[in-house]
């Protein structure tokens, strides 16, 4: 039996995402609902995947090292395919070996040193990784992300990483009370992607990961292709 509430909450999030896409005259199929599983039990994650969640994010490499194999073992019991795993936390070089082995997409790359370490670890694991560059659009010191004027140089440097494919941009806006306050940040990331597509290495930039439980509908209206939703799917997480 699935965890109470998860199928209903997931369905409600998908309906809201589809409605936001319709308001922006977009195809709802363009938008991935990424379930944020940080500090959620493995059983909850497995239940969400069985209910139709196809993409799951984790923020801590060591937590994911233990939890991802547990989730996938639970899914095998019911013949459910595993989700596509995204890493969204601040990445340290000494954790890159976990991340390169466990995840399909890294959304929080903001330094060439980290990119090169991921590339090296992915080669050792005989894998390829999709990567998003995290952009710190508002200059918040406590958040990861590269400064806007350094995104193009970083994108070009990443061309030397043969096992990485930079497919888009990610941002985390300030924690506004009003979701509408995030709209200019989301619009700025969309415009940045358009400009970078004309730069070396920018041809494959299609993803915009932006928007969370409180503001994902605004993000979709501004072009998000990935929205990172935790609480609205899983409820309050364990601390």
Describe the fold and architecture:
By secondary structure, this protein is of the alpha/beta class. The protein has one domain: Alanine racemase (TIM Barrel), CATH 3.20.20.10. It contains nine helices and eight strands. Strand 6, helix 7 (183-196) and strand 7 (207-209) form a beta-alpha-beta unit. Helix 2 crosses helix 3 (61-77). The protein starts with 5 loop residues before the first helix and ends in a 5-residue tail after the last helix.
Can you summarize this structure?
This protein has 239 residues and is of the alpha/beta class. The protein has nine helices and eight strands.
Derived from helix and strand composition plus strand pairing, the structural class reads alpha/beta
Q: Give the count of helical stretches.
A: 9
CATH class: Alpha Beta
H/E topology pattern: HEHEHEHEHEHEHEHEH
Largest sheet: 8 strands, parallel
Strand arrangement across the biggest beta sheet = 7-6-5-4-3-2-1-8
Count of distinct strands: 8
Low-confidence stretches: none
What gross morphology would you assign?
Answer: globular
Notable characteristics:
8-stranded parallel beta sheet; globular; TIM Barrel; alpha/beta
Draw up the topology in text.
Layout: H1 6-23, E1 32-36, H2 42-50, E2 55-58, H3 61-77, E3 84-87, H4 96-102, E4 105-109, H5 112-124, E5 129-134, H6 151-157, E6 164-170, H7 183-196, E7 207-209, H8 216-221, E8 226-229, H9 231-234
Parallel strand pairs: 1-2, 1-8, 2-3, 3-4, 4-5, 5-6, 6-7
Helix pairs in contact: 2-3, 3-4, 4-5
């Amino acid at each position: 039996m699935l965890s109470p509430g998860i199928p209903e909450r997931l369905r409600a999030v998908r309906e809201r995402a589809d409605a936001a896409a319709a308001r922006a005259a977009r195809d709802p199929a363009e938008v991935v609902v990424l379930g944020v599983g940080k500090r959620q039990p493995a059983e909850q994650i497995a239940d969400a995947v069985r209910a139709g969640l196809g993409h799951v994010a984790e923020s801590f490499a060591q937590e994911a090292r233990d939890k991802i194999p547990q989730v996938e073992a639970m899914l095998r019991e019911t013949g459910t395919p595993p989700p596509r795993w995204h890493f969204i936390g601040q990445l340290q070089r000494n954790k890159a070996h976990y991340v390169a082995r466990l995840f399909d997409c890294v959304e929080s790359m903001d330094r060439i040193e980290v990119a090169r370490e991921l590339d090296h670890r992915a080669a050792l694991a005989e894998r390829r990784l999709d990567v998003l560059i995290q952009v710190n659009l508002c200059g918040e010191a406590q958040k990861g992300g590269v400064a806007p004027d350094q995104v193009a140089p970083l994108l070009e440097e990443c061309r030397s990483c043969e096992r990485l494919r930079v497919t888009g941009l990610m941002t985390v806006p300030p924690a506004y009370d009003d979701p509408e306050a995030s709209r200019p940040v989301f619009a700025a990331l969309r415009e940045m992607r358009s400009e970078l597509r004309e730069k070396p290495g920018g041809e494959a930039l299609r993803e915009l990961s932006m928007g969370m439980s409180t503001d994902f509908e605004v993000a979709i209206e501004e072009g998000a292709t990935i929205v990172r939703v935790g609480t609205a799917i899983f409820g309050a997480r364990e601390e």
